[in-house]
Amino acid sequence: MHQSIAKPANGLLDRLIQPFRAAPPADVQLTDPRLIARQYRYWQRRVLISSIIGYATFYFVRKNLSIAMPFMETGLGIQKSQLGLFLTLHGLLYGVSKFANGFFGDRAHARNLMLTGLAASAILNVAFGFSSTVFVLGTIWMLNGWVQGMGFPPCARLITNWFPPKKLATKMSIWNMSHPIGGALILIICGYLVVFGWRVCFFVPAVIALVVSAFLWFALPDTPPSLGLPEVEGTHHERQDRESNEDFRAFVIEHVFKNKYIWIVSIANFFVYIIRYAVLDWGPTMLTQSKHIKIAHAAWMVAGFEFGGLLGALVGGWITDRFLNGRAVRLCLVYMLLAGVSVLVFWRVTVQSEIVLAGILASAGFFIYGPQCLLAVTAANLATKRAAATAIGLTSIFGYASTVLSGWGLGALVQVYGWNVAFEGLIVVAVLGSLLFALAWNAQAHGYESEARP
To answer: Which residues touch 10 (CB under 8 Å, ≥6 apart)?
Structure first.
């Protein structure tokens, strides 16, 4: 799908935006069905693998903070509430950026947008590692939240342009491995790096991110027509090659902002992300301070939460396409209820075995990453590939608004009342999220039929 960004009147702005313009259709379009099928198979694998590697690396320069936090707390004298504020401000800007870049990214060059965000985040991580004052650290991490928001929208554009709607849940669940892979690997890596000082947790991931940025330049394409291939099966519409900015805005308003189910899953995402980020951001601190577990072991345990999430997303995508005909919300309800049960068991279990605790934490990851992945599938399919990044960006605003509670709120709560009250709150969160998914039970599988209607 070729949808160009309107040319700005300002010359400087025009030059700044030029690298992000969507790639135009190739001069020669392939017509041989066998050659098209062979090229599609090649590029679909390449897009999927490269975007997984790229987005997983975004976690290297975002989730490295959680391992450094206990050492920053003791070494710099920063309080939990201040660290929580870092997480909250970062998350809020990240959510807003994901939405803004989603609207932009639906019609921007996917590769260029993605590698720019990753490289910028790497540079900010280096600056963070050289800083010591609360104000400077907080400002840099807020800016990092903004450029991090440039990572997901191009991935949404790629996945929805290269894979048909009937396979989107399965393919998106495979792509969603980038979340737990990136989150788990950086926890493990930083769990060992931190013995050399917390600043190393920012320098080494930054170097890795810069290398991967260069890799993305050579590995990622834009859309199928830019390589001479037809639109992916089941997504073609007659107006796509001549769509104006006004047509696109009207489409977004009608298929995103007026779709009640996209709003419901967006609000549900608020509760999904409270649980997800409570574990990711505070897990190492909770395990070391309340369970007296060594930081390296705590890092592996939280990484287990991520690996459990990897399996949960894969199983959820397969079940959705195989048995639910793409109606992902129905499985989200089951997953969210079981995520709440897992949190309850982790809180109340009395055994001190690290293996048992790690297993329960992994089960929580399995069930929370199901809806984390599938609600994005729901939003993307309902909005169709024309506005998938915008729709998922809307879910992200609510998801990362949750950092008000999972970041600053949880830090302040634990500082005053302790971890027991925090666990009670997380169980309430799971119940509220489940109720919202129940409200979206009747959501259709995708919006391509409604898009085709005049």
So the answer is: none
